[in-house]
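Notes to self after the call with IL:
- keep both proteins in one doc
- input above output, always
- annotate only the second one for now

Protein 1:
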Amino acid sequence: MNTSTLRRLLPVAILLAGLATFLLLGLDRYFSFEMLARHKATVTAWVAAHRLPAALAFLLAYAIMVAFSLPVAMVATPVGGFLFGTWAGAGLSVIGATLGSIAVFLAARYAFRDLFRARAGTKLARLEDGFRHDDFSYLLFLRLVPVFPFWLINIVPALLGMPIRRYVLATMLGIVPASIIYSGLGAGLGAMLKRGEQPNLGIIFEWHILLPLLGLAVLALLPVVFARWRRRRSA
């Protein structure tokens, strides 16, 4: 493996090393509702006294979690709602998640895009062409439907040549609904912890929540359907 290849793989290697270190050291035990319940008074007092630094620290921590694909982001969003309120918590989560996803997107594009193109050849060209026509709608759909791994959706558009600006906008818009739901759940976290309860992180899969999200996802694909209908009529 030559120096150029090693340099291209370095960003991805750093992100994977960070994830491996997190898992091997068992650091996930520090990112739990039990840990928050133990230190709730200290944390809330510090946030109340240092609102802006606390918000920036939360945003940075969220971006790092997403960039390294740490399996704790779902806990972080309710915590954001608990610390900053539903709307501020959701906003910080959306910005942090978007920044982290940009890091993964750029690392994947830099490391693997040329290799992916070389291996896939003409098949990739056709796939890219189909994706590029409606990339914004496709990505928005994938972000809205809460069944696709977040890290995977960060990588696929990078390999298919999606422009970074469209990627960022579709990502931000697509994660807003789920962020509001989980942040709103976290806004009542204090009372839950006092009762010894934990929030239901599976709430997003309950039908009264899931159906509206699926409805939004279908709406995101309407421009694709309309564009294809027009192309067929004009053919």
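Protein 2 (the one to annotate):
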Amino acid sequence: MSQLLDKETLKKMIRENVKTLYRKTLEAASAEEVYQAAVFAVRDVITDKWMKTHDEYYEKDVKVVYYLSMEFLMGRFFGNGLINLEMYDEVKEVLEELGIDYNMVEDAEPDPGLGNGGLGRLAACFLDSLSTLQLPAYGCGIRYHYGIFEQKIENGYQVEAPDNWLENGDPWGIKRNEYAVEVKFGGNVRAVPKGNGEYRFVQENYQSVIAVPYDYPVIGYGNNTVNTLRLWEARAKNKLDLKFFNEGNYQKAAEEELLASTMTDVLYPADEHIQG
């Protein structure tokens, strides 16, 4: 049983979270809503460990491993997190005592398909191992809005549909606006003399997007280490050009936003054309 949350506290937190998030009683809540409420209850424990982990790294000025990958196939966070926190049996019992089937709650979590079986799963295993070995580490990747794809079978053939894993919110990711950065593409570089024989280089006529990070916890098994997976998404520097909008040119008004969103929309766009 968790040393930080006893069963009665956990029950109360889940009930309160359902009320606060959805204006419902627990009995009226769907499996998806109970799942979200349970995540926010468990995140209370995770966040304490997460903050202490990073405070310790900062105080000791440790060297940090940064693992960069285009893919991180982490799997569902809830069940894996409970096992690593050693809270699985406790949470399962709490839900059963509340009259809720744990498996229905676990199945309500979408699986973020942000990778495929090879590269993406290897990256995820490395992150899990680094946390379990209590080694300071960050995973760095891209927060794709749509995963690899959702498979449907129609008339005996596979049909691929967008895997919208963010459709019902993202209770695991913490948006970190304070670390957003501008990323510049293309344009040209002009050398400006400083007057002392040196030059200052200025990039001009470029297109740019704002990269916004979201932090996800990577929980070590049976310890107090919680490292971070930082996934970045692109957004436009100027979301809407009001001049074009007021002229009725709505497509042109949102052009910059569309360009930015396509960069982090889909895990693998088809690449048989130049845009892909």
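Annotation: The domain at 7-180+211-237 is CATH 3.40.50.2000 (Rossmann fold). The chain has one domain: 7-180+211-237.
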